[in-house]
Each structure stands twice: as structure tokens, then as C-alpha cells.
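User: Sequence in, structure out. Go.
Assistant: Echoing your sequence, followed by the C-alpha cells.
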Amino acid sequence: MVRRAVAKQLGAVCSVVEAQEQRAKVVPLYKEMVMNDQNETVRLLALEQSPIIAANIKDVSFVLDVVKPQFQELSWRIRNSVTKGLGELAKACGSDLSVSQLGPLLPPLLVDPEAEVRLTVCNQLVDFCNVVGAKQFRDICMPQLMAIAEQQDEDPRIKASAANVIMFAGPKLGKEYLSSDSVMPFVKRLVNDPGNSMEVTTKVLPHIDELIGNLNVESVQTFCKDVLMKMLDANEGFDWRARAAAAKALPIAAKELQKGGVSPDTFFEKNKLFDAFLELLNDRVSDVRETCANSFSVFHDVLGVEWTTRIALPCITDNLKNMSYLRRISSMKAITCLAKAGPDLSSSILKLFQIGLKDKVPNVRIAALVGMMECWKNLNQTDTEEIATTVKGMVDDEDDEVRMFALQMSTML
């Protein structure tokens, strides 16, 4: 019991005593407890202090000499305990030592017979990647991680953690690597499988827009056609999060196509991506509608006023006639996002806000008022007499909240 208490405080003591005391008392005791103590709990507790001790003593190689044999221990609890501190230990060691000393230990841990050890090492790899850099990480870990993510009988928690690391590291690995024939098909399968467990899905989807921003133009085109188009289709069996992720990723894809010399307008029209995207403004899930609304401004920045006038505004105008007031609120958010993009469309935008201000549902009128307040600096450069008259009339609205927002808006006129 006493040894357990001592082992638990080794790191705290090491961080406050002088270097001479560290070398004379703390470090030898740490080594003795980790390597020779007969009680496994004492060894586990001492091992957990390894990153703190490594960060506080100048001789990091000493800690590595103590720790490295523990990765091959017969007890999975020992292997798991030492692996828990891998990310922090890598930070203490720095890039070169982490690559040479810790790097060779990772592949065996990723195929460890004990699931808990595999899960723990996957959870440490984001920190390890940050320390050693993308290129070294790719060479050390990516083959095993890709294999784990595709194993059908692997624990879903481990697959999710592996997928998270892959999607985190992916954008840092370079366009050439990501777009290669060996990696790109894997990425498509990872993203494009509607049968993924919820754990995997929630780790993969948030990174799709970053991933697209790091593909070459040919891969962006195939990714849009083979992956995003399916994610946008509610009949493909994907979770609603996939539609939200696709709505966020499409404007990024448009940017990358434009950089690569491909007309995003022509490409999206040809592959009916605009039709699928605009449908999301009518999606049954509010988060999907909101993501779609936010993406209009990015499309406007990439494709310009002509696209917005020809494609976006007619769609939003039609949605303002929707029977569902929630869809009409989403349209108000889309209008607000377009208005924030600049004053180019102020005349058309004011007409759409006018429709919202006269809506029969108070929530829609509130959305219109709030939206106008958020982007008024881009709207007041045109004729605002009609909209000002409407807002002043709403000060006497039957709804309390509408009156409140109308009063706030009237002070800006």
C-alpha cells in the first residue's frame, strides 16, 4: 500500500526537487519500481509517471531504457499502462528520439492480441503524429492503421480510433500521397461505406472538407462523383451527418477545382451536384439545412454573382413558399449568409428579407429581423425605404419577440 502511494507520486516529486535529488533518489526508485517490483499495481502506477519524469530530467534516454522493455511485457496491463503515456513521452523525447526509439514499438502494438492495448495505442497516435511529423508518421503507422480500419471483425471502438487518426493525419500527408492509387481507393471506402458503425462515422465525417482541400484536382473530381454524390442521396442509407458533411465539403471542392483550372460551375452542373446540394435546404434534419445555408456564401465567393443570381436566389425564393416554416427559416439563414458575403446582391437580398418580414409565422419574421441586423452594413448602401417602413410597422406586431427585434432593428435604420 505504501509502495503504491509512493509510485503514484513519483512524477510530482520529480517535478519539484532539484536535479541532484532527482538523480540520487527519484530516478533510481522509479527504475526499481518499474523493473523489479513484485506487485503489478506498483509497476503500473510507476509506469504512468514515465512521461512526467522524462519531461523533468535531462537524461530522457534513461527513461526510454526503462520503458522500452515494458512494451514487450507478457502482462497486457503493463503493455497498456506504458502505452497510455506514449503521446506525452513522445513530446518529452522530441522528434528524432521518438522516430528512432518509439517508432519501431508501434507496429507490434497496433496488432497486439489484446484489444485494449490496440485501442490505447490508436488513441495516442494523434499526439505522436504531431511530434514526429506527417512523413515519418506515414512510414511508421499508416499501413497498419489502414488495415485496422478495414478489418470487418475488429472492435468498432478500435476502428473508430484508427479512422480518426487517419483522417487527422491525412490532410498533412500531401496531395501526392493522398491522391495515389494505393491510398485514394482506401479513403473512398472509408468514407463511402454506409455500413460503418456510428463510432467510425462520427470520426470520419468531420474531416472530409480538410481531406478534399488536400487532393489533386483529378482526385477531387472522382471524390465528388464517387463519394459526395452518394452521401447527398438520402436513399443510399447514409446517416444525416453524411449529408451535413457533404454540404460543408462541396464548396471546398469547388475551390480546389477552380485552383486546378477546372470550372466548378460546369463540373457541378454536369454531375447534378448542385441539384443534390440545393435539395439539402429542404432536408428533414435542421443541422443539415443549417450547414447547407452556411455553404451558400462560400459558393458565392468561388462562383460569383452570376451563379448566385442564376442558381441560388431562385432556389431560395422557391423555398420561401414552402409549407414548412422551418424550411422558410433555413432560407432566411441562407439569405443572411449571402448578404454577409458582400453588398453585390443587396437589392435582391432586401426583396427576400421583405418576404420573410411579412411571413405569417412569428419565428420566420424573427429570423428575417435577426438576419438583417447581422448583415445590415452590407444592405444599407441601397434603397432601404420600403424595408424601413415594414420594420417600423412591426414595432406594433402582435408577437412580443417580434416587437423586441423590430425595435432593435429600427435603431439601425
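User: And one key feature?
Assistant: The two ends are 73 Å apart (CA to CA).
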